[in-house]
Amino acid sequence: MRYFTGCLMLLTLSIAGLGATPEPALAGPKAVNVIVDGDFSMAPNPGGFATYPKGSTAITGWTVTQATVDLIGTYWTAPGGARSVDLDGTPGTGAIAQSFKTVRGAKYVVSFLLSGNGECPPDIKRARVTVAGTIADFAVDTNKASIHKNIWAAKTVAFTATRAMTTLQFASKDPPGGQCGPVVAAIKVVRRS
Fold it and tell me: Which pTM does this prediction carry?
C-alpha cells in the first residue's frame, strides 16, 4: 500500500445491504464471542502495517483466503486501541475467514466496525460479509475524512447456523489490484437469545 502522511482517509457511510440488519438483542449480558482474536491483537506486531498473502495464518485465528490483506498496527488508530485489517492488501482485493463452532439451527449475529482507507482509489470501497449462506454487502465513502477524523461505523449481520462449524468471511469487492480498501475491526459473533 502507498501510505502518505496526512493522506489517509477513513470514513464509513452506508450499507448497500443484502442480509444486513439492525442491531439485534444479544443473549444476556455475558454473551460469549465465538470468534478468536476479533480485534487482531493476538497477531504478531505489524509495526505500521504488514501484508499477508493468500493462505497465510499469521493473523491469529484467521486465514487470508484471497489475494493479500494488510494488518494495520500503528499507522492509524483502530477502535479500542487494537488493530484493523485493510481488505485491499498490497495489492489487494483480499479476504479473511475464520471457522468456529455453532449449534445447528441457532441464531447468531456478527458485529464489527467498518471504515475505509481513502489514501488511493476507488473513493467508494466495497466489502462483502459471507456467513452460513447469508451475504451482506457494504459500501464505504472515503471522500470527506482525514487521518485525524477516523470514522468507524458499527455493522451487523444476522444468520442461522446450518452446521456444527460455520465459516465467516470478510472480502473486498473493490476492483482487482487495489491497495486501499474497506477496513474491518472489532469483530464479534455471539448467539442470540
Answer: 0.84
